[in-house]
UniProtKB/TrEMBL annotation, chains A, B:
It comes from Jiella pelagia. Coiled coil: none annotated. This is ROK family protein. It holds the Pfam family ROK. SUPFAM superfamilies: Actin-like ATPase domain (SSF53067), Winged helix' DNA-binding domain (SSF46785).
Length: 407, 407
DNA sequence: CCATTTTTTACGAGGCTTGGAAAAAGTCTC
DNA sequence: GAGACTTTTTCCAAGCCTCGTAAAAAATGG
């Protein structure tokens, strides 16, 4: 079998419609002329495609008053039509589930957070919980209720590479939990289950300041995880959710990690690692170290407590070495950092950069930009929403049932 | 600016021609019908495209006698036309340059190896040397001399990401050496300069047993390097030649590496590392450890010398941890191994697998296939040739100046 | 109120693939 | 050995895109 598939007029149509939608998501509003300029399509083609998408209800012509006064016929502003679809980004974490519903334009419509002890529960319970969450989210909307078109579930832990469920999660005792199929049956929408950290780069998919940029997202908190955006695509492993940055070995034979191995980055840099190192307690704590506890630790370090300072330093060192290893393999990348580690960046940054310097060839990447993103939940919701919308764009570009109804 | 470019009929044509060529390279010979089946094109389109490519001189109809006797009109066999182009794969290594010329079908026409002390020489000398090598190669051909169409230079060391030259190489004292432009002027063909290890996966580009497979190539010898094939593409860094596997840190604060850092994989697993560890000499040897010396070391280990055995074990351990780290980040991958390490695989394999087991989550990948490829030079030549041919296929598919002359 | 400028739409042309029909080139059977 | 059968290849009209140009539309400026 050939690796290269054929192309035909259908593909061209789909691809170009997608290009128009993608451009529109990046800039918010455009005109037919601007679409032509941005995509390289002729104005004729741009106009024709835009017209079709408007008739399909994916885009709409909007009034814009801030238009600068110029001569000539003013362009009709076009924008994504929010009513075209509704998506949900759900999140499963230790001790809580949360979610956000957004419209097709990406505008958040409602958000909900619910603390539940899910540790010992099975798949049915989780699916019920998520379905209830989605229903309650829908009830919060001012607008009329309507079915969801696409749901993304972000999970702490390892997920199946076919996006169907959870291999293993620190939030759950059970393993191998199917989520996508049963939840899809309950909600009537396609469901994709992904690792939260791998998903994070999606949040920047249409951010103009990140356009075409390769970068990594780094979560340091309860665990340690990474997401990669390379060559304009969010990296996804074939066999699992991949980029298990927290379990890249830092020190052969080193500190014990939750995963059973010794010397993982997580065993030095995660909340529990910093806590046990700072308190001199060698065991992995049975329960999650809360955000407040980490704040207190950070404050103690800032106050000068040498043991706590050393713990944060060791954490930064492990992260730095891990980044240095990634940079050596891939390339130096800008880092978007989130989680409790982002809140303690003042305690970590120096040793992170020192670690990169010691482990990367020529210390390359030790001066890489470190972008802080304190609100992890917002990041995950943004990412899940973007992922869902991108998937819908693809579907819509493919189907595009040439407007059944005309306004 | 939009990330997605437009598509049009031109793109379709180029893409489909490329699909036909790519299929043909994978199978050697086909028929128009088989092309249709493999690419998904209609038989009409397949026939039309094949006809064009034959008229352009890229493909030719060949007589095949081993055809199985079936009813119906027999298909006309098609094959890549070797005369359509001529490419060279050159190699710069410590103390020698070598090269191979092949025709458009990938058939090797001539090979040449030349020992030269290039260590202290500058760019002009290197370019002269390569140009002479290419000229001498051309003179060895039975067929009439003709210009090269594409040249690939594989280099030990780091190369510019625009493929224009050498940032740094262990074979050369000088740094930042421009190769592509001056050599191109001399040879009249486009020249691309790449890192030898990064290039290696290209050797399997059209191998049916590797079709669509993700895998890594691992060179263990004078240095330690890796090539990655992910999602059907050979991984290339943006900033450099990338995947510096040998310089992924293995042990913080560990053994001194040539790169100046401490604890790199190379500082444990390369020839010089094994040598200094086995001999108890702490310094990095000034000169390259020859293949014979490594053979003697390996034989000593096989004979039971404990210090030498320990050196090989430490090497395998470092490689295993390195692979475990890569597997944790990307995914477990089959490994194609070459270099002196492949020759000593009996001494390394156990500790490699042990290292993976200790460093990858759940030991995933410790049972990954290890494919040995003893002839490194052949691998590099294959890779360079495949790279060059793939580049030519792209050009030809684009231009395809609809046959000026007809048979 | 008309000329000017800019955006959008309309229309014919060109290119590529498609599907079916016709032609070509063998094997098989009587 | 001639005709029937089968399979591959070629030919041709049709369909879908996009493109370029021209015309229409919508606002400004004098």
């Amino acid at each position: 079998m050939s690796r290269l598939a054929k192309t035909d007029a259908d593909m061209v149509r789909v691809h170009n419609r997608l290009a128009v939608l993608d451009h529109l998501r990046g800039v918010g509003t455009t005109t037919r002329k601007a679409v032509s300029a941005a995509t390289g399509l002729s104005v004729s083609a741009s106009s024709a495609i835009s017209g079709t998408l408007v008739r399909c209800g994916l885009m709409e012509e909007v009034e814009e008053d801030d238009r600068s006064i110029r001569r000539g016929r003013p362009g009709k502003s076009l924008a994504i039509c929010g009513r075209a679809a509704r998506v949900a980004a759900l999140k499963i974490a230790v001790g809580e589930v949360s979610g956000r519903i957004s419209d097709y334009s990406g505008r958040p419509l409602a958000e909900l957070r619910r603390g539940v002890d899910i540790s010992g529960r099975d798949g049915d319970f989780i699916v019920d919980l998520l379905a209830d969450l989605a229903r309650d989210l829908a009830q919060r909307l001012e607008e009329e209720p309507r079915a969801l078109d696409k749901v993304v579930v972000a999970v702490q832990g390892k997920t199946f590479s076919d996006l169907s469920g959870i291999v293993w999660s620190p939030a759950l005792k059970h393993r191998h939990i199917e989520i996508a199929a049963p939840l899809s049956a309950r909600l009537g929408a396609e469901v994709s289950v992904l690792n939260d950290c791998s998903l994070m780069p999606e949040a920047f998919r249409w951010r103009p300041d990140f356009a075409g940029l390769d970068f990594a997202t780094l979560f340091v908190g309860f665990g340690v995880g990474m997401g990669l955006r390379l060559n304009g695509a969010t990296f996804q492993g074939k066999h699992s959710s991949a980029v298990e940055f927290g379990h890249i070995n830092h020190m052969p034979g080193g500190a014990l990690c939750r995963c059973g191995n010794r010397g993982c980055v997580e065993a030095y840099a995660s909340d529990y690692a910093i806590w046990r190192s700072a308190t001199g307690n060698g065991d992995i704590p049975a329960h999650r170290i809360g955000d407040e506890a980490m704040q207190r630790l950070a404050d103690a370090a800032r106050a000068g407590d040498p043991a706590v300072r050393a713990a944060f330093e060791a954490a930064g060192n492990a992260i730095g070495y891990g980044l240095g290893r990634v940079f050596t393999m891939i390339d130096p990348l800008p880092i978007v950092m989130t989680g409790s580690g982002a809140q303690a960046i003042d305690l970590l940054e120096a040793s992170i950069r020192q670690g990169i310097r010691e482990s990367a060839v020529d210390g390359l990447g030790s001066d890489t930009p470190l972008i802080l993103q304190e609100d992890t939940d917002a990041l995950v919701f943004d990412a899940g929403t973007a992922y869902a919308l991108a998937a819908l764009d693809q579907e819509f570009a493919r189907s595009a049932a040439e407007a059944t109804e005309a306004a």
